[in-house]
Design a protein that fits this description.
By secondary structure, the chain is of the alpha+beta class. The chain has ten helices and eleven strands. The protein is globular and about 60 Å long. The N and C termini lie far apart (39 Å).
């Protein structure tokens, strides 16, 4: 049994982690905003029954065998819904830098859950599989709200935290006159920040204000101003990040911000300035450069009902 699935990646521009976190991982999450990009994760999952009581999961990233615990945990959660033991091989192609704030863990969990469900013939709903991916992210401390944004697509604001159907998102109206140009320097250990109360208190105050700005006037211009406010005041940016932001804006970006959370930046660039901005950023360090369109269709796994759900709604959860 074999199936594939794709998930876009997502870059967070600002966020807030509510202090009254639930014990239920489905209700845990962050609020904030970011960009869903077409550079993403494709997962191919092969499954065969084996004797015994324990399933075996092997994971590969871009052709190299690694123990990728996020993908492995996503597989095991889907396998919990069926009887028997299986050998599962997950081969992923990840187009964005890992650990640099591109949402690769969320995209990996979502694509893997989608492909595993398809390979097993379960035909679980998109919402259920997205819920599984969200719970995996929370339990692995790799993220708190990216999955909902991946399902929504485009320029996303998470208004209410939690897994899909628990949380609530909206999509900021935009046209196709710009691309996202990103530069990644090195990974940041997200667990340290996500679990640090002292840093979160300050970050939350900024994230709450940025979110209020956008909700008061949900336009791209307001979103960029709010993200700029958060990026400049969060205190998370390294010297390299600050230099890259300044350079990108000097070369024509509408605005540029730090990836949350990573030693990386993402710039919103008009189409006629993309090459100029990308070439300028390549001269720093050099970092890894990612140029991407926005992605509006959400995740897909050759399941027509999944695509239909994504295309029909910009809302996740209740009203």
């Amino acid at each position: 049994m074999k199936a594939w699935a794709y998930s876009p990646c997502g870059i967070s521009s600002f966020f807030e982690v509510p202090s009254n976190l639930s014990k239920d991982p489905r209700a845990i999450g962050s609020r904030g905003g970011g960009f869903c990009i077409s550079k993403g994760v494709t997962a191919e999952v092969s499954i065969e029954p084996i004797s015994g009581e324990t399933s075996v999961v092997e994971t590969f990233i871009n052709g190299h065998q690694v123990d990728f615990y996020v993908a492995r945990k996503a597989v095991l959660k889907v396998l919990d819904m069926v009887d028997g033991a299986y050998k599962v091989v997950v081969r992923q192609r990840i187009e964005a830098p890992i650990g640099c704030g591109f949402g690769t863990s969320a995209a990996s969990a979502l694509a893997t859950a989608l492909a595993t469900s398809k390979a097993l013939g379960l035909r679980l709903s998109l919402w259920k599989l997205a819920e599984i991916a969200h719970v995996v992210e929370v339990e692995c401390c790799t993220g708190l709200g990216t999955v909902s944004g991946l399902i929504t697509g485009g320029v996303v604001v998470v208004k209410k935290p939690g897994a899909p159907r628990e949380g609530y998102t909206l999509r900021i109206p935009v046209d196709n006159t710009f691309k996202v140009v990103a530069a990644a320097f090195q990974p940041i250990e997200k667990r340290k920040i996500l679990l640090s109360r002292s840093q979160l208190q300050w970050i939350n105050s900024l994230g709450r204000r940025a979110l209020q700005m956008v909700l008061a006037k949900p336009t791209l211009d307001t979103f960029l101003k709010a993200a700029k406010f958060f990026s400049e005041n969060s205190g998370l940016a390294s010297c390299k990040v600050r230099t890259a932001i300044t350079l990108a804006e000097r070369k024509g970006a509408l605005a540029a911000f730090q990836n949350m959370i990573g030693e990386a930046i993402h710039a919103i660039v008009p189409l006629h300035r993309v090459d100029e901005v990308a070439q300028a950023l390549e001269e720093l360090s050099p970092p890894r450069i990612v140029v991407s369109d926005l992605h509006f269709e959400g995740s897909k796994a050759r399941l027509a009902e999944h695509l239909a759900l994504v295309r029909k709604s910009n809302k996740i959860g209740g009203a």
